[in-house]
Write a structure and sequence with these properties.
Layout: E1 7-11, E2 23-30, H1 33-41, H2 44-47, E3 49-53, E4 59-60, E5 65-72, E6 77-82, E7 86-92, H3 97-107, E8 131-132, E9 135-136, E10 141-148, E11 154-158, H4 159-162, E12 179-189, H5 201-207, H6 215-229, E13 237-241, E14 247-249, H7 250-259, E15 265-267, E16 272-275, H8 277-283, E17 290-291, E18 294-296, E19 303-306, H9 312-330, E20 339-340
Bound molecules: flavin-adenine dinucleotide and NADP nicotinamide-adenine-dinucleotide phosphate (NAP).
NADP nicotinamide-adenine-dinucleotide phosphate (NAP) binds at residues 131-133, 198-200, 229-230, 240-241, 245, 266, 276, 278, 300, 337.
Length: 341
């Protein structure tokens, strides 16, 4: 029996951080797995194209969504178990990621402090293996529970079955659009093992004059850095980095470096180098550029922004122009990180 309210012609503007004005043919919200299973049993999800949505901070709508959008509001945080060194904590997919980070810091559980202030919900965190300042979700991931949409069965995925990669997982590849992630559990440390080598964190901690380092200090440092250079989606529509940092083989790296000696790159595993896509886009002349109602952010060229009233198609077209010019200047192909609908 259907117990969730399904709305028609629903305006998604408040459900995507780009602030794109589009409509979903149908829209519903779920608060537990049973809500979702009843949608499956009633055949609602088989008839229509479907999209599971969390905070909408990694999507770009280029047109009205001709199907059903299911907003995941499954809440709850539970301590599953612990040993001398670790806790195993589970969070509902609809929990706000940053609130969960603060909750764990408050409890004295370490491991996700570097991932402070990433917008969106817990359920999306394994989707692209969210990462920042040298830490990725895969580093602390334990298991996730998901409902298989076509069978209605509950399945469990451990770390290896998620096939995590750089801003990647099986849920963006082979299993795309096949599962609703309902909860995620993490293995967090009871003892501090801080990661502060990355980027500006050390500098910020120095500025904050921290004497005895805590997870809260790291979280505050990350919040300060992020707030100083990333646009707040409530003020300026965006979905964070629009492109991934390209990972290329060493031979190609040496070719590009030969032609562009200031190329910014980092080792990315055996024989691989990761290029800073923001630097490539900046060098191609895009940083701060305004094109119609959208543009490239003036403090971080990886971020495309909606200056107000842009359509998703206009932002997508801008991203194609950026891709093309980086390809022409450096011979390097950028890949979009944001999910396009
Ligand atoms: P949504 O945008 O709602 O969904 C993203 C994708 O996941 C969609 O394909 C959706 O269908 C799918 N999905 C969502 N929830 C579920 C579920 N429960 N089950 C199945 N599928 C689901 N990302 C980083 O990795 N690192 C960063 O540092 C970072 N910084 C950002 C900064 C800003 C200012 C912004 C706007 C974005 C940033 N992002 C970053 C991107 C984004 O915040 C993350 O990808 C986040 O995990 C998206 O969460 P969400 O709930 O908003 O997902
Ligand atoms: P930054 O510190 O200016 O660094 C630029 C790029 O260089 C980053 O993309 C980062 O790669 C890489 N980098 C810097 N120091 C590195 C190191 N010591 N080792 C390996 N790689 C290094 O980047 P930023 O734009 O201010 O972002 C800071 C962090 O937040 C980054 O980790 C970034 O991924 C994350 N972030 C992500 C999004 C998103 O939407 N995905 C949005 C904003 C910020 P990595 O990206 O691989 O870390």
């Amino acid at each position: 029996m259907q117990k969730t309210l399904i709305q028609s012609d629903y305006n998604l503007k408040a459900n995507n951080t780009f602030g794109i004005e589009v409509q979903a043919k149908k829209y519903t919200e779920i608060t537990d797995e049973d809500d979702f299973k009843s949608l499956i049993e009633d055949g609602v999800l088989l008839k229509d194209e479907r999209l599971i949505l969390g905070g909408g901070s990694n999507v770009l709508f280029t047109k009205n969504f001709d199907g059903i959008v299911i907003k995941n509001n499954i809440k709850g945080i539970e301590l599953l178990g612990e040993n001398d060194d670790h806790v195993f904590v589970q969070a509902g997919a609809g929990e706000t990621w940053h609130d969960f980070v603060l909750y764990c810091i408050d409890k004295g559980w370490y491991g996700i402090e570097n991932l402070s202030l990433i917008p969106g919900n817990v359920g999306a965190s394994p989707m692209q293996n969210i990462g920042a300042y040298g830490v990725e979700v895969k580093d602390v991931f334990h298991e996730l529970e998901a409902v298989h949409i076509s069978s209605g069965e509950t399945h469990y995925f451990n770390k290896s079955s998620c096939e995590f990669g750089y801003r990647e997982s099986v849920f963006k590849m082979d299993m795309k659009n096949q599962y609703l992630i309902s909860s995620v559990s993490f293995r967090l440390s009871k003892k501090p093992n801080f990661s502060v080598e990355y980027g500006a964190i050390k500098q910020e901690l120095d500025k904050m004059k921290v004497s005895e380092l805590t997870a809260k200090d790291i979280s505050n440092a990350v919040i300060n850095i992020r707030s100083s250079k990333l646009p707040n989606p409530k003020v300026l529509g965006n979905a964070g980095s629009f492109f991934k940092n390209p990972v290329i083989d060493e031979t190609t790296f040496h070719q590009v470096k030969g032609a562009h000696e200031n190329l910014v790159a980092y080792p990315a595993g055996e024989g691989k180098m990761k290029l800073a896509a923001g630097w490539l886009i900046d060098q191609a002349g895009w940083k701060g550029k305004v094109v119609g109602k959208c543009g490239v952010h003036d403090l971080q060229a990886l971020v495309l922004v909606n200056h107000g009233g842009a359509t998703g198609q206009e932002i997508y077209d801008l991203s194609s122009e950026v891709l093309q010019s980086v390809k022409e200047k450096f011979g390097v192909e950028l890949e979009r990180e944001v999910n396009i609908y």
